């Protein structure tokens, strides 16, 4: 780097004379700063998201296929579970690419897919797998995915809280099915209910005031 003794200023570049006073520059020991500094490589902000979704999808798919093999008389419902998870995963990816409200988009997709699986279950003779397995698995997984997304994407509290609360409330619905004894096994529904109640409790305890203010704002109360 060069220095102008008259202007008391450092000059970057190869100039011999000061651009301000035309005084001759003297060479200093200070190295020139890079005009176009090299930026450090940035990490992919969605890499962890893809890993979480991939792990969840594979784990649930393996569990569904295993249970289906143990109970083959119930029909091959595991194919629909795997396909449903694939659709949810694809929907999340598309939402990220298009920069939409990802949690709202995800919740809508879950409801659409759930209604579709219930319709398919009804059309093929109603084996009950849609509310025994698909419903609790989807809502439990959605709560985990929504919370993970809110942290990975560093969303504001108001951007994810309402959707997480809605999903948790939907996740309590299986208690009706257990009470009515219309599910084949209670375990998936019980897990979904427990996760939902814990989620609602955590939201009320840690984000109760923010949740109340957000509801007032959205409902224009």
How does this model look, in words?
The chain has a three-stranded antiparallel β-sheet, with no helix packed on it. It is elongated, with a radius of gyration of 28 Å. Helix 1 packs antiparallel against helix 4 (129-152), helix 3 (102-123) packs antiparallel against helix 4 (129-152) and helix 4 crosses helix 7. Strand 1 (2-4) and strand 2 form a beta hairpin. The protein is mainly alpha-helical and 221 residues long. Helices cover 65% and strands 4% of the residues. The chain is built from seven helices and three strands; from the N terminus they run βββααααααα. The chain has helices at 47-70, 78-97, 102-123, 129-152, 157-170, 174-180, 187-219, and strands at 2-4, 9-11, 26-27.
Topology readout:
Blueprint: E1 2-4, E2 9-11, E3 26-27, H1 47-70, H2 78-97, H3 102-123, H4 129-152, H5 157-170, H6 174-180, H7 187-219
Antiparallel strand pairs: 1-2, 1-3
Helix pairs in contact: 1-2, 1-4, 2-3, 3-4, 4-5, 4-7, 5-7, 6-7
3D shape: elongated
For the termini, the CA-CA separation is 63 Å
**What Rg do the Cα atoms give?**
28 Å
In the predicted model, the low-confidence regions spanning at least 5 consecutive residues are none
The strands making up the biggest β-sheet line up spatially as: 2-1-3
Q: Total number of helical segments? A: 7
Strand portion: under 5%
Largest sheet: 3 strands, antiparallel
- Tell me the quaternary state: single chain
Give the total of beta strands. Answer: 3
What string, H for helix and E for strand, traces the elements in order? EEEHHHHHHH
Helix fraction by DSSP (H/I, runs of at least 4): 55-70%
Mean pLDDT, as a whole number? 78
What would you call the structural class?
Answer: mainly alpha
